[in-house]
Amino acid sequence: MEFAELIKTPRVDGVVLHRPFMPTVEGTLCLTGHHLILSSRQDNTEELWLLHSNIDSIEKRFVGSLGHITVKCKDLRVIQLEITGMEECLNIASSIEALSTLDLVSLMYPFFYRPMFEVIEDGWNSFLPQNAFKDLESMTDEWRLSEVNKDFSLCPSYPPLVAVPKDFDDETLKKVATFRHGGRFPVLSYYHKKNGMVMMRAGQPLTGTNGRRCKEDEKLINATLRPGKRGYIIDTRAINVAQQAKARGGGFELEANYPQWRRIHKAIERYNVLQESLIKLVEACNDQSHSMDRWLSKLEASNWQTNVKEILTTACLAAQCIDREGASVLVHGTEGTDSTLQVTSLAQIILDPGCRTVKGFQSLVEREWLQAGHPFQQRCAQSAFSNSKPRHEAPVFLLFLDCVWQILRQFPCSFEFNESFLVLLFEHAYASQFGTFLGNSAAERARLCLPEKTVSLWSWVNRPQELERLTNPLYEPNSLVIWPSVAPQSLLLWEGVFLRWNRSSKCLDEAYEEMVHIIEYNKELQTKVNSLRRQLAQLETEDPLLHTP
Amino acid sequence: QKYYHYVHLFLQVEQVRLLDRFSNKSVHGTLYLTATHLIFILHHHIASVEKLSLTTSGCPLVIQCRNFRVVHFVIQRERDCHDVYSSLLRLLRPVCYEELYAFSYNPKQNDQQREEGWQLIDLGAEFERMGVPCDQWQLTDVNRDYKVCETYPRDLYVPVTASKPIIVGSSKFRSKGRFPVLTYFYQEKKAAVCRCSQPLSGFSARCLEDESMLQAISKANHNSRFLYVMDTRPKLNALANRAAGKGYENEDNYSNIRFQFVGIENIHVMRSSLQKLLEVTGTRSLSMSDYLVGLESSGWLRHIKAIVDAAVFLTRAVTVEGASVLVHCSDGWDRTAQVCALGALLMDPYYRTIKGFMVLIEKDWISFGHKFADRCDQLDGDPKEVSPIFTQFLECVWQLTEQFPQAFEFSEWFLLQIHEHVHSCQYGNFLGNNQRQREELQLRERTHSLWAFLMSEKRNHLNPFYSPAYSEAHPVLEPSTLPYHFKFWRSMYHQFDRSMHPRQSILKTILTLKENSRKAESTLQALESVSTLLHIPPATSRLPHSGSEEDEQEEVGEEATESTDTERTVEGSSGTESRKQSYGELEGTYNSDLVKEEPAVVSLEFGVARMTC
């Protein structure tokens, strides 16, 4: 297929662009296969380059022959285009619509994008499972890396390599896989160095209505317990939801079969409930005519903050079991690809200082989201402005980032990265020139040959000039476990995402600059002081005369 | 312990438990009552965490403080509890001002220092700074003896064309005699912000002197042909007042005025709004939904927004249109004070400095007779007179600091300190209801000034992001008043609930860094001078100096170590923290590991305490 077929009018002059808190730009609008470009053709005037895949929905209306196109983006930005001439406007609108709703992955921009920068380190090789396992091996010998899924046949959503208890061979794993939803048998998610406790994740057990059991499954997870110790199973579904799952062949671990485990149910919302929540929240944020009461009531009705609180609370609970109770934890929901990953990844941020560095966080996203089989392509196909009925869309990853931001706000000196890094990940999960978030699983990414055909987001991010922008100037490594407050008064609306385009950030940006300046100035001074003192000390040793009393 | 022998002990109760408000933790200790303080000494250990059953463990005593601290005691014997309760009741209700802490508070200053403290703020100089008196505005001595209006200060500024008969006539037509006077002069456009109380217009009454007064204010500004009259009340309230012979200006009787209601609710609505807010936020295991619903139904943020909206209206009228504005409500000492002060803060960068903010409070709140004694319940008064009007003003300022992080010289700690001392009654500034009363109480002679204390602590209250250049470039602030810009002020209403706050404070970190930089600068200077000395080549000249050089070096060395050793503390992320948090499910399982905590003292001033039993 040629993109040209979809582009009815490639170029229109005299188009006026309106963006909130930015001056109006008049210029030429160009449509290419992947971009909507507006250029004023003047020096120093900002141009607009918008990926079609970033466009969530468009609306058009006419006042006489003047057409107005409202473009609503997945990053929650809303822009207006004024196009003279009904035909041009209609052509542009339908072209944008066609280009922004292409389903075929191989037509996506990452397959056409060529990096304009020097790749220092290929991000596709930065976080290989075998390297992560080396770290684990240095701490414990109780785990092994299994290749049982190397052709993705046992579990299509797992990566080729997974860490499992050492004493269990691949044959046993195959049996366990048949007992877990989507073949997602329990695998290692996190090893807590401090006390040797572990966090595992899996799909729900397929107990069904007649309470099927699987001895191998029981043995497998029991193998992670210390003698005489109990473990915790955190089921991310409310008990009634878990009960209902039995009718469809799913279920939960029965006490009788898992006597060493205490099961805790938490109610984390899923799928379209979350998508609805996002849509309502963004709607509330974008309506500027609200009174205070209406705003608060719409914010409440969106349930977004409730979702944040619930996810964070569950993650804290998991972390508490591991660190405070000294118990191992198994986390699962239904498929084990959404709320499960929110919980396991957030718990690691709380427990493991390594995850709070730039590289560590990338590694966490790679391990606990991409490799762990979160279906990014399905979940992020549409954002808050979509008119179509949601199918698989859900802001699961965005909620995770929101929770990370909440912890970052409470421990502003304990993270090596800043808010911009989180916003960047949100943007790229929904629309990107990089291949990192394409596909729904490691298997799909392998099939699409992404490492060969596309550039990794990490290749771009891990360059000094980008890192500088994304690094938190307040960072001081903090080796402790960080316990966030989950009181509603402590959880804030993430303005950097949800009000980003609705407020002027000038004052806040300038204050941030000032903060960076204060910190840098302090560092400079300290360096000067230290070097002078060293020089003086040297003089002192060189010249014994100085020592005479 | 010795300290407590110096003060007269009213009561001492052993074996009292202090409960944490949001968790199941409690601490054992001894409770002491003195004439002015309630002191609880926390013992060294933390008790095992267990579910509390109030009937078996003792008699609960909850003390809510006006600085939003809530202290929950459990006293073993009911008789003791009753003794504490009744003693507190007696102590909490001083009948005369002399019983208040300010009269016994002694910060070890001599009379001269105290005198200087009171001279820190000079309102005459402040009006001069604004450019008053000038050809259109003059100082009038009409209220020299508080004869025309006893709740106004002695010195008042009025248009030069307003003669004494006009002033007196106008004052008779205004509630409590509070006739229109100048409170802020916007020099750039010669526009004035004036304040007064409502006119006694009833359904049809008019007063020629009052009309002339407004005319005079209007005429004093050549930039605008009309005068805005802002009635800060909701229209319905103003209408209701007409039946009582009060009301609002009839546009037909006053030439060239533009009348405007802005709809800020009265003291009773504000009081119950705060009460609702505190009820909601004081709930244990509060759900997000209940929190947001409660925030909405309390109406608190709606009221805050209404005040900021009014101030923005005032600011636009003055700075953009160049019009003068007369602001009033009913008595002109609550909403009027809020709107005038906040408006001036938006218009004039001076009020956004530490000194300027003190001046602003001294002017629009203290001197113009905001009834601090009644509103803050300093004496045993009418509970219907109590209202968080001044707290709202501080919150409005905080909301602005959130939008303009570089525009204010002070941080929220400054606002919290002021709030604390408005209620502590430790300093004389806020005692009484008006200047006349303060003079009668001889506060300047018998108490200390808060401003001097805050000035001496200035460094703690600085906003490290403050940029005078920003204020120069943006003298007038134009805040957005869209609802989502108003946030719940956690640092105020939960200031003592530490578990709810960020464990690491950016403000504190940056302040420390700035302080370190300041020290490093001087160290650097010293080091540089030493090294220049050392680089002087002739060996002969070095010898005689060497002794002194070394001394200096040592000194410098010490200082530098000190500054580099100032570590940033990672607060509260240790193991003990998770127990302060409740994530559900696992509560009550931590009996095993007890952690020692340093003893602390909870000290409450009666001025801020209210009690429920």
TrEMBL record, chain A:
GO terms for cellular component: cytosol; endoplasmic reticulum; perinuclear region of cytoplasm; ruffle membrane. It is a peripheral membrane protein. Its main location: membrane. Keywords: Acetylation, Cell membrane, Cell projection, Coiled coil, Cytoplasm, Endoplasmic reticulum, Membrane. CDD domains: PH-GRAM_MTMR9, PTP-MTMR9. Residues 123-498 form the Myotubularin phosphatase domain. It comes from the Eukaryota. It holds the Pfam family PH-GRAM_MTMR6-like. PROSITE patterns: PPASE_MYOTUBULARIN. The keyword Coiled coil applies. Transmembrane segments: none annotated. InterPro entries: Myotubularin, Myotubularin-like_Pase_dom, PH-GRAM_MTMR6-9, PH-like_dom_sf, Prot-tyrosine_phosphatase-like. One of its GO terms (molecular function) is protein phosphatase binding. Belongs to the protein-tyrosine phosphatase family. Non-receptor class myotubularin subfamily. This is Myotubularin-related protein 9.
From TrEMBL, chain B:
Its main location: cytoplasm. Residues 535-597 are annotated as: Disordered. The keyword Cytoplasm applies. Residues 549-564 have a biased composition (Acidic residues). Pfam families: Myotub-related, PH-GRAM_MTMR6-like. The keyword Methyltransferase does not apply. Residues 298-342 form the Tyrosine specific protein phosphatases domain. It comes from the Eukaryota. The active site is at C329 (phosphocysteine intermediate). One of its GO terms (molecular function) is phosphatidylinositol-3-phosphate phosphatase activity. Substrate binds at N266, I267, C329, S330, D331, G332, W333, D334, R335. It is found in: Cytoplasm; Endomembrane system. GO terms for cellular component: cytoplasm; nuclear envelope. Residues 117-493 form the Myotubularin phosphatase domain. InterPro entries: Myotubularin, Myotubularin-like_Pase_dom, PH-GRAM_MTMR6-9, PH-like_dom_sf, Prot-tyrosine_phosphatase-like, Tyr_Pase_AS, Tyr_Pase_cat, Tyr_Pase_dom. Gene3D superfamilies: Pleckstrin-homology domain (PH domain)/Phosphotyrosine-binding domain (PTB) (2.30.29.30). GO terms for biological process: phosphatidylinositol dephosphorylation. Belongs to the protein-tyrosine phosphatase family. Non-receptor class myotubularin subfamily. This is Phosphatidylinositol-3-phosphate phosphatase. The lineage of its organism: Eukaryota, Metazoa, Chordata, Craniata, Vertebrata.
